[in-house]
Write a structure and sequence with these properties.
Elements (H helix, E strand, L loop, with lengths): L14 E7 L5 H14 L4 E6 L9 E3 L5 E3 L1 E3 L4 H5 L5 E4 L8 H11 L3 E7 L11 H7 L2 E5 L1 E2 L6 E2 L1 E4 L15 E4 L11
Parallel strand pairs: 1-7, 1-8, 2-5, 2-6, 6-7
Antiparallel strand pairs: 3-4, 9-10, 11-12
């Protein structure tokens, strides 16, 4: 499959870009790269992240490689509409932590002529599609699937391995709780 980035940008319309993959695959790093380029182009950029994600910072989106950009912490995805009237480019990190309302919010923003860039996990720790990412992938004009490196065998990894036995779907953490695994090395932990 050939990955196509938005080379020739649409004119006089908005669109949605989704960056999806497992943990440690560079999703936030790619989001930051695109947002920095938009800032260099002197576009008005607004960046949002969910209140639940305070792993590295409460005020910035931060990649595992420690790249960061200032962001607005929000509880409800609908707050993006309130804060982004003047924005030309909107970045949303950790989309899997938001409700399915994110789909309508992204469509509304794109329909207003805005470039919306969303990053998030496409699968949970069991390898099951992580809502609302499948719906975002379906409506996006541009999709980037990022891969990590399997910590067990070195193959390309698209799974997030949970190293604990908790059965909750959402457990916020980093390398202390998760690692990247390939299809062969990934397993579903036995629940406690």
């Amino acid at each position: 499959m050939i990955e196509r980035a938005p080379h020739s940008m649409p004119k006089e319309t908005g669109w949605i870009e989704v960056i999806a993959g497992c943990m440690f695959s560079g999703k936030t790093e790619e989001l930051i790269r695109r947002l920095r380029r938009a800032k260099i182009a002197k576009q008005n950029v607004k960046i949002f992240k969910p209140q639940i994600d305070t792993r590295y910072s409460t005020s910035d989106i931060v990649s595992h490689s420690e790249q960061s950009l200032p962001s607005i912490l929000i509880d409800d995805i609908k707050e993006v509409l309130k804060y982004s009237d003047d924005a030309e480019v909107i970045g949303i990190d950790e989309a899997q932590f938001f409700t399915s309302d994110i789909v309508d919010v992204c469509n509304t923003l794109a329909n207003k002529g805005k470039r919306v860039i969303v990053a998030g996990l496409d699968q949970d720790y069991r390898g099951i599609p992580f809502e609302p990412m499948p719906q975002l992938l379906a409506i996006a004009e541009y999709i980037t699937k990022t891969l990590a490196i399997c910590v067990e065998c070195g193959n390309p990894a698209d799974k997030t391995q949970r190293k604990t036995t908790t059965s909750e779907r959402v457990v916020v953490g980093a390398a202390d709780i998760y690692e990247a695994r390939c299809r062969k090395c990934h397993y579903i932990p036995k629940e406690s």
